[in-house]
Amino acid sequence: MRRWNSNKAGILLLLQILFFSSAAVSSEYPEKEPWKHVFDIGIKRAAGAVYDGKFIWVSDLVNSMLVALDPETGDVKKEIRAPGPRPVGLAWDGRLLWVSDREEKFLFGVDPARELVTRRIESPCEQCMGLAWDGNYLWTSDGKKIHQLTTEDGTTIRSFSSPPFTGKSRATEQLGIAWARGSLWISDRHRDRVYRVDPQNGMVLDILSAPGPYAAGIAVIGGSLYLVDREKKGVFSIDTGGIPMLVRSNPRVEDLFVVYELGNFGPDTVETSEIFIAVPANLPGQEIRGDIVFEPPPAGFVVDQWGQKLARFVVKDLEKSNTMKVSMRVSATLYDLRYHIDPGSIKSLSSMPARMRRYLADGTKYAVRHPFIVKSVKEAVGKENNAYRKMRLIAKYIQDRMHYELAGGWNIAPTVLERGSGSCSEYTFVFISMCRAAGIPARYSGAIVVRGDDASSDDIFHRWPEVYLPGVGWIPADVQHADKPSPEDSFDPLSSLVNRFVITTSSGGPSSVLGWTYNGAAKFTCKGRCHVVERFWGDWSPGKKPASSVEEAEKEACPSGKCP
Asked: What residue ranges do the domains of the chain occupy?
């Protein structure tokens, strides 16, 4: 009986390790934005939506009607005939419902009380979709461009690319546009996303996952967005001031085998060889599973001045034709990260902790005080004081002047920026240099990368910048991966991280151990002539996913099903 109880206790402990502990860690971050179901609607093909202070109006494409709904229950309170056969977008200017129609090249102003069309202005696009009112002007989209126009005669004030449009891609369907918190909020039913867009320049400020597969119109009530989803036939809401700062999703379990080789081709003996491998830690986007295994065991561990931990391996008298080989095995759960940052919530840079000031220091690769960097920062930032907006302006400045080129060498920031091309590391040096010159703390992360398939190899690696925003903390800002033509793609890597990296290295500049490199490095001494060759790579294989339920954990602990 005692033995049975002992075995049972061991299995219960294993179940806890396999399931409960992993579940507790995963619950630290929400998996999605907190959309709430408000009510169902009976409109078969709902499109635009707007709130007039009393009702949520929704356009009905099947019956060519404008339908007023109770904002709490969804009950139909009124229906009026639409001014065209295919009403799409809706906006409310305090007196009139403005309606865009897919078959009419006009925007119509409707008096809902009298059910009369009292205004008609020419549309700026062939097929205008969503509509919004910002207090002075209308906004609309044709899926390629966002237009601001007057209600006097439809004169276009400004236009810029819609978030997913590259200049060559097909138009998308953006059935909802709304104005809230000084920004445009645009729903895209092809991308299943809601974009927050800067009305001054079209810059994407945030991306939310839509609550359903067919995002249509958006209405604003107070500080909340109310989004109509045609496929779910419902209305969903989200508080724009209550969006979590970090959303973590899409877990991916990977096993990583890292190998560093140092070969001596002679003719003389390498007296002392040292290899350092950066040790990954638990981060929001990665959870280390179990122990990290080194082969052979390291001579010890060291920590550089940036707090980076490294395993140190030492070999004496590496003779000709011999190789020093060390490895590290890591199992990790990797996640997609999405940061939601409200520019208006960013605190002043003067409020940052004193410990962050070391991430403003100069360095050989940065050349922060170089006249070309100083001049470039002034051109990029102008009079902007908000740290987040300054960071975005710097990123755009670099993207407008550089293209990716893996040409070898890591030149200093002013040389790279003036040349107009660079590797991921050189993009990183330029971005960090300009951010620091603008007073924004910046550092870099280095990682080994899953190259496409779960089973893959990487010997190129990747490095990207991070910036510190007062009141938010450190966020990724991969300016090189963000160098894309569409506003969406030029924003995404500046606020998100995909689940294909094991980050090994975090550093503010030259490391006392790694120098300007990352992931790992080697040092050696030789009397005479030694032709030393280094090889460093990582091999990936899909790992075993953690149990998602007690039942799965029980099967994992006792595969035969006959355990006591």
From this structure: 2-30, 36-243, 249-335+516-542, 341-494
The string of pLDDT tens digits covering residues 477-516 is 999 999 999 999 999 999 999 999 999 999 999 999 999 9
> CATH fold of 341-494, please?
C8orf32 fold (3.10.620)
Q: What is the pLDDT of residue 420?
A: 93
C-alpha distances in Å from residue 49, one per residue of 171, 261, 457, 509: 21, 62, 49, 50
The CA distances from residue 537 to 405, 447, 540, in Å, are 21, 11, 10
* CA–CA distance, 162 with 142 (Å, rounded to integer): 9
Alpha-carbon gap, residue 224 to 469, rounded angstroms: 25
Do the first three CATH levels of 36-243 and 249-335+516-542 match, i.e. the same topology?
no
> pTM surpassing 0.70?
yes
Q: Strands of 116-122's sheet, edge to edge?
A: 87-92, 97-101, 106-111, 116-122
Q: Are 92 and 98 in contact (CB under 8 A)?
A: yes
For the stretch 440-482, pLDDT in tens is 999 999 999 999 888 999 999 999 999 999 999 999 999 999 9
Long-range contacts at 554-563 (CB < 8 A, ≥ 24 apart): 554/11, 554/15, 556/18, 557/11, 557/14, 557/15, 557/18, 558/11, 563/7, 563/11
What pLDDT, on a 0 to 100 scale, did the predictor assign at position 453?
A: 87
For the stretch 516-538, pLDDT in tens is 999 999 999 998 999 999 999 99
The number of beta carbons lying within 10 Å of the beta carbon of residue 542 is 13
pLDDT tier, 544 (very low <50, low <70, confident <90, very high otherwise): confident
Please state which CATH number belongs to domain 249-335+516-542.
2.60.40
Between the CA of residue 76 and those of 55, 56, 79, 330, 404, what are the distances in Å?
9, 10, 8, 58, 55
Q: How far apart are CA 204 and CA 21, in angstroms?
A: 37
CATH superfamily of domain region 36-243: YVTN repeat-like/Quinoprotein amine dehydrogenase (2.130.10.10)
CA distances from 159 to 137, 147, 384 (A): 13, 4, 22
